[in-house]
Design a protein that fits this description.
Blueprint (H helix, E strand, L loop, with lengths): L16 E2 L17 E5 L17 H12 L7 H6 L2 E5 L4 E2 L6 H15 L7 E5 L1 H15 L9 H4 L4 E3 L2 E6 L5 H5 L1 H19 L1
Parallel strand pairs: 2-3, 2-5, 5-7
Antiparallel strand pairs: 1-4, 6-7
């Protein structure tokens, strides 16, 4: 299955996005093998830096580093997928500013929900950053009437256990972008979250 042939945005209603950066994963994936669903923030300004573009793409380099920090020496997106991990973004178009509006996150969460439904054997969600956390909360509120992750600073809430439809949810930090390379404390927490998530699957 190629996800970009199954879901997508048709009318681009959002006002604070760059549609030139629009991208949905196009790699061939066996949906039944995916156990961990990792949600990042948004596509990069240059599609060459997207997760599935190449092993040398900037998003892939920082993501691989995050897995290395967690003790998993993957060398390419194929290694990650073969371990049962799928990576996507909460919004499918590029950002035009530093932040993303609630309306845009809500709009894109509907596409994200369709994307999640493609994978029948998900056990864990890794929410990498505030946009991913907000998107998951929108999905949860539509289906259950309440958010799954409480408000508050991520470092304060991340040690609690959260579930959506009996699936474990890890609120974490964004593993892409230049800030990832310089914010050592967040890198440590990202590695801890990835390690705990993978240990739940592999042990």
């Amino acid at each position: 299955m190629k996800v970009n042939t199954c879901i997508g945005c048709n009318n681009f209603p959002c006002l604070d996005i760059n549609t030139n950066c629009y991208v949905v994963p196009d790699k061939e994936i066996d949906p039944g093998t995916i156990k961990i669903f990792m949600i990042s923030e948004a596509p990069p300004p240059d599609k060459k830096d997207y997760f599935y573009a190449s092993a040398n793409s900037f998003y892939m380099q920082t993501t691989l580093q995050a897995f290395h920090d967690a003790g998993y020496n993957y060398s390419a997106i194929g290694d990650i997928i073969n371990s049962g991990i799928y990576i996507t973004t909460a919004i499918k178009c590029g950002k035009t500013g530093y932040s993303v509006s609630a309306t845009t996150i809500d709009n894109c969460s509907k596409i994200l929900e369709q994307e999640i439904d493609l994978f029948p054997n998900i056990k864990i969600f890794l929410l990498m950053g505030d946009v991913a956390i907000k998107a998951m909360n929108y999905i949860a509120k539509r289906n259950s009437g309440k958010r799954v992750i409480p408000s508050g600073s991520t470092y304060k809430i991340r040690k609690e256990k959260y579930y959506y439809n009996d699936l474990r949810i890890f609120p974490s930090y964004l593993q892409t972008g230049k800030n990832y390379l310089i914010e050592k404390s967040k890198r440590i927490m990202i590695a801890e979250d990835i390690k705990e998530a993978l240990e739940l699957i592999f042990t």
